[in-house]
Amino acid sequence: MKSLFYDIWEMTAEMAPYLLLGFLLAGLMHEFIPRQVYAKYLSKSNFKSVFLAALFGVPLPLCSCGVLPTAMSLRREGGSHGATISFLIATPQTGIDSIIATFSLMGLPFAIIRPVVAFVTAIMGGMLVNMGEEKRDEKKNLDTFNYSQETSEASHHTPHSALPKTITQKLLNALHYGFVEMMGDIGKWLVVGLIIAGMITALVPDQYFALFKDNSVLSILLVLCISVPMYVCATGSIPIAVALMMKGLTPGAALVLLMAGPACNVASLLVINKVMGRRTLLLYLSAIVGGAVMFGLGIDYLLPREWFTSVLSIQNDCCHDNNMEWFTLASAILLLVLLINALLRHDHHDECKTGNCACGNEPSQSFFIEGMDCSHCAANVERAIRSVEGVEEVSVSLSDKSAKVTGNFDNKKVKKVIEEIGYKII
């Protein structure tokens, strides 16, 4: 048991400085890059829109559940079918935070190859969807775009049209997003990933993986069986991949886990099937699994193994060094404090409970929403509801999975905009 906690602590300390930097950069990107920038260039069903969607998606720090409403919003705002799928593939597989964290535990080669694979597979998936898209889909895109313009104009005149923010306000918002909201979203999955990695390292005997050791095909098949149904974020998958490599699985298999795990969880598959159809779902899976396997085999058979295992050797050599540098120790302690703080803040979106809303005596109604699991989900639900004509105030509660809506509005329109971004009213 002592070895288990020690292994978990060592991985946490190794990743901590890079994770903190990643969360900071994620907050800055979120606050200083407007959402409209992404939607503006993704409306056409051509290679350029798919390329840009992948390019935008690779550095974005969105978790697996958070990317779903974001992508559905892009679709609703006029994004093409192929561009939406490209964004859905690229974004959960990697991000600025997970790229930095990958470098911390797995070295530079993995940190370079991981976003490259995400980018290529995203383009593959987007183009596959575009090639089979029929003209009626293009008409649907046009209708969706027109509808989004109307709702955008409606939301522009809501009481919450914000005044321009100062640099100080933006920096504070960036810190809050990176170290509170985003850390709350992926923190529990990062903890789960670290615990699983520690259990694999400390409790699973080396001979358990003897059949798979240095066998690329069997290793990849094993990892596919584990990763496709598993819910894990891009950052949380890193320690698990490291632990499996230390037990003898190939670098190619580790790459498959890093790519397929975050993008192929059951929740994502169900929403894509519901909103975009079975055919699109199959193309989505084909691009992710096919691309990950192709690049995984390429790593195992075409590139020197030492590129990917040398970092593990260094970690093994120093894993029992008790003289941990003060900066690493301080970063690990700060990360743990921030994680605890973020995970304890279950309901920071529910303004009515804290007395900060402006509902007054306006009529209100509560909607219970299935599939709303993180602050990204809550923010997208709130944004969608605010776009409905007549809505005066929205208060979203993550803990209750509900939204309290105040004003004179049409219930059917509220339900429609919620379902259009991939959620279900219950």
The gross shape turns out to be globular
Largest β sheet strand count, sense and barrel closure: 4 strands, antiparallel
Strand adjacency order, main sheet? 2-3-1-4
What is the average of the pLDDT values? Answer: 77
The number of distinct helices, counting runs of at least 4 residues, comes to: 19
Tell me the distance between the termini. Answer: 43 Å
In what range is the share of β-strand residues?
5-15%
Number of strands: 4
How many domain modules?
Answer: 2
The structure class reads mainly alpha
Could you tell me the radius of gyration in angstroms?
22 Å
* SSE sequence, one letter per element: HHHHHHHHHHHHHHHHHEHEEHE
State the helical fraction. 55-70%
Low-confidence stretches: 134-161, 318-323, 347-356
Give a quick rundown of the structure.
The protein is mainly alpha-helical.
Q: Can you tell me about this structure?
A:
A hairpin with a 4-residue loop joins strand 2 (391-397) and strand 3. With 426 residues, this protein is mainly alpha-helical. It starts with a helix and ends with a strand. The longest helix is centred in the middle third of the chain and has 37 residues, at 167-203. It has two domains: 2-341, no CATH class; 351-425, 2-Layer Sandwich (Alpha-Beta Plaits). Residues 134-161, 318-323 and 347-356 have low confidence and may be disordered. The protein has a four-stranded antiparallel β-sheet, with helices on one face. The protein has helices at 2-32, 35-40, 47-57, 64-76, 81-93, 96-106, 108-131, 135-156, 167-203, 216-227, 237-246, 251-263, 266-276, 278-302, 306-318, 326-344, 351-354, 375-386, 411-420, and strands spanning 364-370, 391-397, 402-407, 424-425.
